[in-house]
Structure formats: C-alpha cells, structure tokens
Queue: 2 jobs
Job 1
Amino acid sequence: MSTVTAVLPEPSTRRAVWPDPGPARVSPLETLRHVRTLAWRNLVQVKHNPMELIDFSVQPLMFLLLFTYVFGGAISGSTSEYLTFALPGLIVQNTLFATLNTGTGLNTDLTKGVFDRLRSLPIARSAPLAGRILADLAKQVWAIGILLGLGYILGFRIETGPLQALAAVGLVALFALCASWIAVLVGMLVSEPEKVMVFGFTLIFPLTFVSNVFVQTNTMPGWLQAFVKVNPVTALADATRGLFVGGPVLTPTWHVLVWGVVLVAVFAPLAVRAFKRRV
C-alpha cells in the first residue's frame, strides 16, 4: 500500500482572503469637518474665478443704483423714499438669483470630474454637496452686506434695531437655503452649467418681478394682485422691510417659514436622489 503525503505551503506563503469591508463609516464630527473643508475650498476658489465677484458684489450694486436713480423718481417721486422701499426687496431678489450659483457650481464640478476625485477620498459622501451649499450661503450673506453698505452710503437707514436687522438677514439666508434645493435638483438633472441659469432665470424672473419687490401691490391690476399676495417672494420682501424699517413682521414671516418647509420637503429628497445617481 502506498502512502500519500500532503504537502502544505510554507506558512509565509499562505494568505487568507477576506471580504472587502467597504469604506469605513464616517462619524458625524468627521462629516462636519469634511463639510467645513470643502466649503472653504469653494470660497478660496473665488480668487481663481474673479467672475464670481461680479455675481456676488458688482451686479447687486448695479441693480441698486439703476433701480434707485432710474426708476425711483418715477415710481415714488423721490429716490430716497424709493430706496427705503426697494432696498429690502432688492436684497431678496439678489439672494434668490444667487441660489442659481449653487446648481451651476455643482454641475460644473460634475462635468469636470471633481466629484470623481472627491469620491476616491475617505470623506463623507454628502460633504461635497453640503460644502457647496454652505459656501454659497456665505457668499449670499456677503452680498447682503455689500447692498446694505452701499444703501447706507446712499441714505438708507435701518429704523428698527440691530437685532431686527440681523433677524432680517437670517430670514433671507434661511429662505435662500431652502430655495437652493431647487437649484441643486436642476444642477443634477441638466447636462451643462448654462442650462441651470436658463431654467433659473425662467423661474425666478417672474417670481421676483410679479411681487412687491419693486412696486406696491395696490398699484397692480386686481387679477394680478391675487397672485402677488400668495407669492412667497412678496412675503419675504414684506418681512424683510418690516424688520429693517418697520411694518408687519409676524404674518409674512410665518408665510416665509411655511413656504421654506414646503420647498425643502418637496425638492430636497428629489435633489438628494438625483445627487446620488450622478455621483
């Protein structure tokens, strides 16, 4: 009878094959750190893209000067009176238009492969999206400060108090944060950054101009007033005016908050789903 001897490999050549555990789970604290880092990245990029300075600095100032000195006398009879009325509305309009930069920036990062490089890093998957939104929110607050600064030079005065003024800036920024989910969704769905701007202008232009941002509601035809009164831009402009120069605050603020909740509830899940599909 023959004996069969099993030959085993040397211990040094044996290797256990383990299943791939996948990427490590990122803690909430690390996620916040990743969001802060990517938000700072987006802010620092401004020095490499001076055109963003025009969007967030020069363009709002041009709107304020043009509407005050070209239309102010015809609408209110006095440029100073019109400045008091129009500046809060211009802040609202400019902030809503600035939300389009969020969708444009996200689409640009996608088409240029930035997200592909970020995905290979051990970072939270939501950090690129949250970082972009946070950075653009900071730019919008900067634009509000620029408008208030020029308005002060031209003669605008806050007639309430510093706390009410901060509340006005916070309310506008909060609504912009809610509305930015629309821009995020569009940025995820379209193929080119320019299409985000086209869609955005098509939506935001009617909402801002068919409101009381530039003129009193009672000067419009009756059939148009019905839409203006339920327009969320009108509620935001009324609340901002009330907090800056006095007037009704509670009712328009509640309307703004309700609209903000509706926008987040409808568009945030759709935007996150589209974001996950793209990245």
Job 2
Amino acid sequence: MEKFTKLTGIAAPMPLVNIDTDMIIPKQFLKTIKRSGLGVNLFDEMRYDREGNEVPDFVLNQPAYREAEIIVAGENFGCGSSREHAPWALKDFGIKCVISASFADIFYNNCFKNGILPVVLPAEAVTYLMDDATKGANARLTVDLDKQVVTASDGTEFSFEVDPFKKHCLMNGLDDIGLSLEKVSAIDAYESRAKTQFPWL
C-alpha cells in the first residue's frame, strides 16, 4: 500500500451531507474484485447523464478539479452499505484524503486499509476549508499526517486527531497483509515448531 505522510493538492468542495457509498460507487459496478478501474465510475450518477455524457456542473468534471486529490465534504460521508469498492473508487480516481465533520464507521476504517486518510474536523473548520476549496486549483490544501495538521491556502492551520495505530499503518503503507508480513519471522518459527510438536497436522 502507498505510504501517506504529507500531501499538498487540489481540494474539491462537495457541500453535501450523507454522501453514501452508493453515490460514491453505484451498485452496478460492484461485480469486480479488482481495486483498479473503478475511478472512471466514481460518483457515476452525478458525473454523467443517462447518455453517458459528463455533467458540466459536477465538481470533478470542472477543469479546476479534475486533478483533485482531496475532497472536502459534508458530514456523515461514506454512510450506507459497507462496500469496500467505495474507497477503491476514490483511490483509483486519485483521491488520497477526505475531510469531513464525520464519517460512517465502516467506511472510515476501510479508508485506512486502502491508503486514504479520512480527516475529521469540527464543522466550522470544514466550512472554512470548503470555502477555501471553492477558489479552485490555485488554492491548495496541505495535509500533514505526521503533525496531524491541515493547512489552508492562506496558512490557517487545523489540527486533527487520529488513532496512533491507524496513523502508523498509513505512514508506513501497511494494510492487513503488510501487517502480517511484518510478523513473517515469528510465523515461520511457529510453523517449524508445529511440524515437530504436531506432526499429524
């Protein structure tokens, strides 16, 4: 998994509350078990009309936000079903951080397992960053995971909390498989002992 330490990038403002996982990646795209290729269908029903044409008013279709790496969103982001395809689609599009006043628990945890940093800030801070993000590509936000600070384009800083274990995993690029591989020596030693102690297994 890609490490997340510090990110400076364009932030797309999405002032909607209760953005659920079906909005992030609609159900018809859940047939795959691959983590790649879903970015094109991120927010599919908002990005495209029924004929498959881009909706010009949708934020990620606007020239200033096509290269966005951060989303600043309304509260309760990622609610709805627990589909892991939602963070897959965000990451495949290029989103590395989502900032909101609150997240659905399962989505929040899935983000860390897929290399995305979900930042929880007070509503007033999110409003400030949302307004900053409306300035377009010239207004870049900086998210420093090590210092746990989000910096607006004017230098205003907002501190955020994050679980130390989740922080460690994200900064070191460790998903569940990576965590297991850190213990590979202990696992190998156990397997060797088990062959001797329990030869019938």
